[in-house]
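User: Can you recover a sequence for this backbone? Please restate the input before giving your answer.

Assistant: Of course. Working from this structure:
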């Protein structure tokens, strides 16, 4: 049978309606009254979602294997099946008030690529795999991005299996309960390329009117827990100039975090997400405040500069005998660049489809961040309405999801070697 070049498949497109219908069918598992999805990791609803996706893959003749942390690998064999796989995927667990597309789109876009190749009678030289990663969200079990983290060696299988939810139920117990404690070792196989399609979860693409984001990498992150101690006192008798108001000092630190991020544009980010004031009484001057700080940047030099500026702000706000400012770093994710060759494959795929693309940086963590440690990796972003995600009103346009999936198809075809049409296959 004749071997075909990429030119011969440049006109191939996925079935956008089929992709959309699959997303809507999966979204019915754990559907919420407000139109979102609550399908927590390793719950029975997660089992139902996993069973559905695996059944769809088996209908295409794919093999399905599950590793010891519950990651699912759905494999379409290649003409030379010993070659490193071209992989794509994401997750199907959600936040308690999650949406229909976060994670789910990446898995079902991968499945739609396989459906399209199957329907067209197209064989690829390298095998293709779609993966469902376990517990990406971290809403039930910590750490986040658990399945890909174990796979990439970021932490051990034993550490992940021992993690417990608020009810004291472990990951190990939950995997066994839903039937997804797999026999396969949770370690990397031969992966030639990994792509992850995802809604942007931010407003940039929508604001620019561009459908495809070619993601160059992910921001590094440093998280801090901060405690500020002043002194509680009565709100009435205590003059303003004699107060040791811990909340006032905390407010000044919030402004400093914002200033630091703005001074490290364009990718600097600074967020104070949680504030607890003690004693939290209407007529008592706050004596203690606990808050969280999240700093992000695209490279370690910038992130280090932001961290140094933050430490300096903490020192300057402390006043011996009046205010104590204590800061502890609790999380560090290094910035993660993606593989330039794969990012270019995404740009080229968009060009083949007549779509504009924009080079972007991911501000959020994704399974691709861990996969980039063990395999060439890149991500495809598509817009989501108002940049909203981790919310039941999360939304995306069908035509944008279709376009992103088509880019995924053509990017993967650029990485999987020779292409062959079966007898009767349709270019």
């Amino acid at each position: 049978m004749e071997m075909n070049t990429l030119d011969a498949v440049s006109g191939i497109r996925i079935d956008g309606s089929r992709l959309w219908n699959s997303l809507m069918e999966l979204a019915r598992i754990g559907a919420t009254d407000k139109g979102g999805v609550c399908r927590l990791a390793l719950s029975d609803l997660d089992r139902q979602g996993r069973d559905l996706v695996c059944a769809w893959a088996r209908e295409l003749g794919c093999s399905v294997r599950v590793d010891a942390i519950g990651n699912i690998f759905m494999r379409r064999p290649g003409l030379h099946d010993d070659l490193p796989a071209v992989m794509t995927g994401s997750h199907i667990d959600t936040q308690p008030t999650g949406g229909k597309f976060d994670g789910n789109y990446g898995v079902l876009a991968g499945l739609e690529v396989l459906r399209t190749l199957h329907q067209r009678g197209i064989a690829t030289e390298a095998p293709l795999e779609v993966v469902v990663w376990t517990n990406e969200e971290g809403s039930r079990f910590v750490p986040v991005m658990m399945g890909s983290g174990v796979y990439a060696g970021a932490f051990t299988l034993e550490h992940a299996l021992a993690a417990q939810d608020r009810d004291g139920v472990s990951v190990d117990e939950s995997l066994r309960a839903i039937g997804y404690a797999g026999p396969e070792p949770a370690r990397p196989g031969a992966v030639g390329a990994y792509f992850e399609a995802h809604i942007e979860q931010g407003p940039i693409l929508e604001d620019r009117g561009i459908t495809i984001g070619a993601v160059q990498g992910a921001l590094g992150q440093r998280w801090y827990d901060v405690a500020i101690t002043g002194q509680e006192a009565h709100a009435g008798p205590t003059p303003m100039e004699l107060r040791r108001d811990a909340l006032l000092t905390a407010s000044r630190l919030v402004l400093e975090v914002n200033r630091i991020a703005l001074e490290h544009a364009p990718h600097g980010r600074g967020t104070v997400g949680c504030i607890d004031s003690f004693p939290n009484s209407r007529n008592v001057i706050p004596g203690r405040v606990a808050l969280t700080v999240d700093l992000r940047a695209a490279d370690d030099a910038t992130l280090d500069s932001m961290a140094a500026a933050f430490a300096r702000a903490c020192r300057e706000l402390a006043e011996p005998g009046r205010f104590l400012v204590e800061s502890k770093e609790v999380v560090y994710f290094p910035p993660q660049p993606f593989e330039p060759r794969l990012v270019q494959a995404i740009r080229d795929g968009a060009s083949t489809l007549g779509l504009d693309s924009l080079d972007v940086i991911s501000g959020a963590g994704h399974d691709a961040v861990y996969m980039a440690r063990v395999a060439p990796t890149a991500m495809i972003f598509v817009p989501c309405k108002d940049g909203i995600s981790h919310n039941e009103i999360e939304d995306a346009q069908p035509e944008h999801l279709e376009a992103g999936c088509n880019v995924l198809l053509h990017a993967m075809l650029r990485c999987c070697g020779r292409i062959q049409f079966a007898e009767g296959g349709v270019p």
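That completes the design. The longest helix spans residues 300-317.
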